[in-house]
Amino acid sequence: MPPNSLYIRILSENIRETIHNCQPKLEVSHLQVITYLWPKCKNKQKLLQIQAQLITTGLIQNPPIASKLIASFASSSLPTTISIAHSIGTRVEGLDTFTWNTIIRGYLDRSNAKQALLVYSHVRSIGLNVDSYSLQFVIKACGLISAVLEGKQIHAQKCKLGFSSEVIVQTALMDMYNLFGELVFAQQVFDETPQRDTVMWNSVLALYAQHNLAHEALVYARAMAYSGLRLNGVSVVSVLSACSSLKALREGKVVHGYLIRHLTDIDILVYNTLIDMYSKCGSLWNAHQIFRVMPIKNVVSWTSMINAYSYSNLFNEGLALFQEMEGENVRPDEVTMLSIVSICSKLGSFELGDWIDHYMEKNELKVRSTTMSNALMDMYAKCGNIEKACKVFDWMIKKTLVSWTTIIHGLAMHGYAIPALLRFSQMQREGFKPDGVVFLSILSACSHAGLADEGRKCFNSMIQDYHMKPGREHYGCMIDLLCRGGLVNEAFEFVQSMPEKPDMIVWRMLVGACRNQGDISLADEISSHLHEMRPKSSEDYGLLSNTYAVAGQWVRVNEIRKEMKIKGFMKLDPGCSSIETLKI
Q: pLDDT tens digits for the chain (584 residues)?
């Protein structure tokens, strides 16, 4: 007898003796003993002993018994037991569809979608009929591994097998096409389903809400209500997300009222979505009221409210709420810290940047994703600590285009043109294709450093090497670069060759350069262009006046100033600046 059946043998003898004493005439079989012991087998080792006993007695070939053993292995939480269940299934003839569905589902529960597909193919190859659960499981498997071709084949099989009216199969197909981004096919499945339940309606709402088709999501929400079905918590989350995207405050309030009237037990997810909807629709007061009346708050609730303050530019209030969150012993997650880092970036305070660095180190939040590293780089750069931003960039294991863009922009913002150009070259060598934002940062760096030749090369590379069309900002940077380099005539020619008509900002840069270079004749020529622009603000009138003053045309200066008084253009708000003093 195999060693692993020792447990079975000892217990079998005890059970036989007990049954014999109670009922002497009863013949006790192996099957009765195993059936008695089966519920007591709670781990893999004891299940293996049961399997060994079934093999030695030949009962393993009994399909009902084998099915029960397969179900026991498949339902185990251990990852290896599903392979044992599959192995038993391949060695026993006559297993039914339910048993094979158990194996397919076991692989799905262990995130092994590819193997689930292979088992389904085996079931089809041996000629066994599949049911709606088989199709549901295999469709889910296709969605998990983005098996588009196989998913469409299963769709065709479903139609041939006559399962088009099965709601669970149709809903699984919609979810699969949602994962593929195939909205047309998902819509087709929905339209072809004669009877739709709440789950299927929820799927179509999520489909459009998740793909930024908020208007369509609201349309289907109304259609769902007209069909006689009530929206549940899942439906409401999708509809509120659509309202957030559209900034549809009125519709969001209607959904909120529906919740109060029809849902007695509101889920915390719904509360969090309500806060997000009100904050994005600009109704901070409502978001705050929802947050305060919530019976239970999780980290998502606190983060949503912090983001609500950030959306309303109430950054100090957001930081105060974060401190309140700490007082409630709610540990922040990465999303929370991203919100706080973003607030510190917008405030641009060196002290806050230093505080967040110490906070993350103190709370062991230094292990961070690429997204967090990008946010920290941006914060350090905007708070004046470019050295720390460079360290974060150098420590990053995985860099994205956003990472390169952030560090190049930070270096350019601090006037480090040469390091920015070096990072730009390194980025290209590592195979990253620069976008318009990167080129704008590089041109800005060259402009502030007076690197006219390098700026020209980058601008030409943008057009010739990467076949990109420069925007108004890129042209503005090139004009500023040429003007700062004293190349006013070249800048004027560049302006005249622009595909778009230059605006007042462009002419202002040229006039400022003419004044600095003392080129009165060119300033006078530019003034005619300024006059044609028909100035709309006091700044534009002031520029015209100063231009004529530089050219010595005092009569025209007086005319401009009189026109300003007649039209009521007066500069009422003076400019202001602020600096942060640090204690050393």
A: 444 444 444 444 444 443 344 333 333 345 554 554 455 555 666 667 766 767 777 777 878 888 887 887 787 777 778 888 888 888 888 889 999 999 999 999 888 999 999 999 999 998 899 999 999 999 999 999 989 999 999 999 988 888 888 899 999 999 999 999 899 999 999 998 888 899 999 999 999 998 989 999 999 999 998 888 888 989 999 999 999 999 999 999 999 999 888 887 888 999 999 999 999 999 999 999 999 999 999 999 999 999 999 999 999 999 999 999 989 999 898 899 899 999 988 888 878 878 887 887 787 766 578 888 899 999 999 888 899 999 999 988 889 999 999 999 999 989 899 999 999 999 999 999 999 999 999 999 898 888 889 999 999 999 999 989 998 889 888 888 888 888 888 888 888 888 888 877 787 778 777 767 767 677 767 766 766 666 556 766 776 677 677 667 788 778 878 877 777 766 555 555 555 554 44
CB contact at 8 A, 578 and 347 = no
Cα-Cα-Cα-Cα torsion 500, 504, 505, 510, nearest 10 degrees, comes to 90
Say if residues 439 and 474 touch (Cβ distance below 8 Å): yes
Nearest to 131 by CA among 105, 93, 95, 169: 169
Calculate the alpha carbon distances from 241 to 182, 291, 360 in Å: 21, 17, 31
Full domain range(s) for residue 543: 495-570
Tokens of 357: 């660095």
Q: Is residue 346 part of a domain?
A: no
Q: Is residue 9 domain-shared with residue 49, that is, in the same domain? A: yes
Q: How many residues does the chain have?
A: 584
- Residue 360, C-beta contacts closer than 8 angstroms, at least 6 positions apart: 337, 366, 368
Distances (CA, A) of 573 to 505, 541, 544, 569, 579: 20, 16, 20, 12, 20
pTM for this one?
0.73
Residue 565 lies in a domain: yes
Query: Which of 229, 163, 175 lies closest to 203, judged by CA?
Result: 175
Are both 478 and 499 inside the same structural domain?
no
| CA 448 – CA 416 distance, rounded (Å) | 9
CB neighbours (10 Å) of residue 240? Answer: 26
Query: What separation in angstroms does the CA of 101 have from each of 105, 109, 437?
Result: 6, 12, 52
Asked if residue 434 belongs to a domain, the reply is yes
Domain assignment present for 384: no
Secondary structure tally for the chain: helices H, strands E: 33, 0
Same domain, 480 and 502: no
Instruction: Mention every residue, 6+ apart, whose C-beta is less than 8 A from residue 282.
Output: 247, 249, 311, 312
Same domain, residue pair 540 and 564: yes
**Closest listed residue to residue 185, CA positions, set 155, 224, 217, 141:** 155
Number of domains in the chain: 3
